[in-house]
Amino acid sequence: MYKNIKIGCGEWGFRELPLEEHFQIANELGFQWLEFGIGGGQKGRLADELSDNEIQEFIEMGKDYHLATPFGCLENDFTLPDEDSHLKMVQYVLRQIPLLAKLGATSIRLFAGFTPIKEITPEIWDRMIMAFRLCQQECCKFNLNIAIETHGRISMQGNAAVHEHTVSTHPLSLQKLIQELPEAIGFNYDPGNLKAVNPLDTTYLLPLLNDRINYCHLKDWKPFERGWVACAIGDDDLDFGSLLRQMHYEGVYLIEYEPVDDVKEGIQRSLNYLKRIDFL
């Protein structure tokens, strides 16, 4: 009934650490796969322009620490209301795709966007779909797979994160995305994000997305004040044992522990939880 799953280490919790520390910690915790990010102004991410020497240094770090890095993350928003800003965003992503390929990525995590679902106009929707089609055409040249993360809009109220529906979390818009996007474009399934935007839905939209998942983040959120704080799987009530048994996805599941103050300990708690529920 249970299955052993392949586990990798997500990158977001490392965003304030120098890149080599990502490799060191992931290696110490016994991982074989490590996610990496480009751009976004974070200390722990690669620059969005790299020399051949910098690319080679990154590849050599993977070899030195015995870690594969097939999962690359970009920061993007294809639902920007301003058309000129949208076009600049699309061009930015298109420029990064060859760089991701040079760095050894085989999967690219993108966002649909963070405009609240209630503010999505037909024009914004059509521009978003076209952006993904253009990116898919470019990714085909480099054998890269696109994964759209299920992610709401987050606004901070004090130390609490308040989540709102976007096109990648609302069930009706997700159904429309599945229908309109090329079949080769999949989803980075993040059930923790779906919980935080709609805690009443304990299916976490798995019946809708199950056959289109090609990437996966494992984390949870717990209630705090009028919103949420990110936490390790097992720290709150999302039942990953039940969820993982239902998932068709057979790739690497990436533990994405977001808090930066105890990132190594939080990742270890996540691993311990997976052991307790017999998935490691």
Structure description:
This protein is an alpha/beta fold and 280 residues long. It has a single domain, classed as Alpha-Beta Barrel (TIM Barrel), CATH 3.20.20.150. Helices cover 37% and strands 21% of the residues. The chain contains nine helices and twelve strands. It has helices at 19-28, 52-64, 83-102, 122-140, 171-180, 191-197, 206-209, 240-246, 263-276, and strands spanning 6-9, 33-38, 68-74, 107-110, 145-149, 153-157, 160-164, 186-189, 213-218, 220-224, 227-231, 252-255. The strands form three sheets. The protein has an eight-stranded parallel beta sheet with strand order 1-12-9-8-5-4-3-2. A two-stranded antiparallel ribbon has the order 6-7. α2 links the parallel β2 (33-38) and β3 (68-74). The two termini are 13 Å apart.
Helix vs. strand class = alpha/beta
Shape, per Cα inertia axes: globular
Q: How do the SSEs run, as a string of H and E?
A: EHEHEHEHEEEHEHHEEEHEH
Radius of gyration: 18 Å
- Share in β-strands: 15-25%
